[in-house]
Amino acid sequence: MIKDSDQQYGLISKLFHWLSALCIVGLFAAGWWMVELDYYSEWYRTAPHWHKSIGILLLIATIARIGWKLLTPSPKALAEHSAATVKISKLGHSVMYLLMVIIMLSGYLISTADGRGIEVFTWFEVPSLGELFENQEDIAGTIHEYLAYGLIGLAVLHALAALKHHFVDKDKTLSRMM
Q1: d(CA 48, CA 115)
Q2: Which residues of the chain register pLDDT less than 50?
Q3: Which residues neighbour 8 within 8 Å (Cβ) at sequence distance 6 or greater?
Q4: Domain residues for 53?
Q5: Which residues contact 65 (CB under 8 A, 6 or more apart)?
Q6: Domains of the chain: total
Q7: Measuring CA to CA, which residue among 8, 33, 11 is closest to residue 174?
Q8: How many whole angstroms separate alpha carbon 5 and alpha carbon 165?
Q9: Maximum Cα–Cα distance across the chain
């Protein structure tokens, strides 16, 4: 099944979800590691290039994912979920999407503050808008860092909630996304 149904997520939603999860965890780990690189490290230029390239591709995928979500209604909440559980779940998902977009846009602002575009592997270049405000690189960098920590924290809570639903509540929350 490609599209979502009332009871199950479809293949496209599952691919968006798991690809995003993999990229977010990988980008967070790489970002954490990259801040320790010095000019003489063989990864000093390569790691940021990969980080930026994957980040831009994830931004494109996230925009497509949001579009897909608007066009394809998600499965209905499980009957055994309380109204509070449904509200918290929707709020958590909305905050994760918002954090993802802000983190990726702030990454763009960090990388393009000097007027250079972002080369996405060797496929295409995202042009720079230049320095839009004073101290752009530092302000965007702070936002990028702290919101990345927030997103990872929220992702851990998201995963723990899915595991709780699966192993404690024994409902179909997790299996609908597998």
Answers
A1: 17
A2: none
A3: 1, 75, 176
A4: 11-177
A5: 16, 20
A6: 1
A7: 8
A8: 20
A9: 57
pLDDT (0 to 100) of residue 73:
87
Indicate whether 1 belongs to any domain: no
Does 142 map to a domain? yes
Angle in degrees, 0-180, between the axes of helices 83-112 and 136-167, rounded to the nearest 10: 150
Which tens digit of pLDDT belongs to each residue from 108-121? 999 999 999 999 99
Question: CA-to-CA distance for 150 and 139, rounded, in angstroms?
Answer: 17
Q: Does some domain include residue 6?
A: no
* 3 in any annotated domain: no
**Confidence (pTM):** 0.93
DSSP 47: H
- pLDDT for res 109: 98
Residue 61 is part of a domain; what is its CATH number?
Answer: 1.20.950
Hey, how many other C-beta atoms are within 10 angstroms of the C-beta on 99? 19
Please tell me the predicted confidence (pLDDT) of residue 96.
Answer: 98
Torsion of CA 121, 123, 129, 135, to 10 degrees: 0
In degrees, to the nearest 5, what angle opens at C-alpha 153 toward C-alphas 152 and 154?
90
